[in-house]
Amino acid sequence: MRGIQITEFGGPEVLTLHDDLPEPATDGLVRVAVTSAGVNFADTHQAEDSYLAPQTLPLVPGAEVVGRTDDGRRVVALLAGGGGYAEVAAAHPSVVFDLPDAVDDATALALVLQGTTAWHLLRTSARLAAGESVVVHAAAGGVGTIAVQLARTFGAGRVIATASTPEKRQLALDLGADVAVDVSGLDDAAAVRDALREANGGRGVDVVLEMTGGPVFDGSLAALAPFGRVAVFGMAGRVPPAPVQVPSLMARSTSVVGFWLVHVLRRHGGLRPAMEELLALAASGGLRAVAGGDYPLAEAARAHRDIRSRGTVGKLVLRV
Questions:
Q1: pLDDT at residue 237 is higher than 80
Q2: At what angle do helices 142-153 and 166-174 cross, to 10 degrees?
Q3: Structural domain range at position 302
Q4: Mean per-residue pLDDT for 229-248?
């Protein structure tokens, strides 16, 4: 089968197209003939072996696919350990979901990993309550575009988006954010704190969804209102934040919550509750995925370069 394989860790240059890769073993798994595969920022960490889970070479990257099962069902599937950037993938039955006709490939790919991440960040980790303010960093990205919409659907009182360009900020506003600000050029935590509080009418914020790291995390933590929560799901800037001081959390009754979707898969029900709600919202028009660009399978390296440049929006898709 055709697929992208990594035989050494590194940047986008290590993604190489092969025409004769063996199909994955499917014992106890669902074989999917792949039509489209999703590209996520986490894939770039997988390629350089800086992901939360250690990677083993050789490696076919990619965590999500849309395609057909051997019995003809059109499905979206989440993959354990990669394998998405290829013509055939194998997925556990618990993470294979039948798709309504109204949900296209790009939307399905956006929902199964980034959508469920946004859903659980708000519902499970941050435990958003009606009326609370929510900051969504990188609001024009794959998780961010969905999180902005879900925060509004889930009853947030004020949705504050951050994005680095006027076009990205306008997209966040179009998706339902109340205000959109740029914190990307601020290298001081106090400046990030002040920008977020100003966007919230001078008040501390209740919930922050954070995946940048460095001063953006530090400033977000400082911007919290009493009982505020920062839910952390990435470190795209590849710059670690300052160590969190427990006394400072106690002083304002704030909290920092880490999130990794892997742990949801180990819970009873797994992704199914989130996927059922997300697919229903998408099919009814209550949630839309933002298409960020289609790439041929052979141009996976270009997709990685584009997503690492932070110049993309929404969902990137490889057409297999």
A1: no
A2: 30
A3: 3-99+290-319
A4: 87
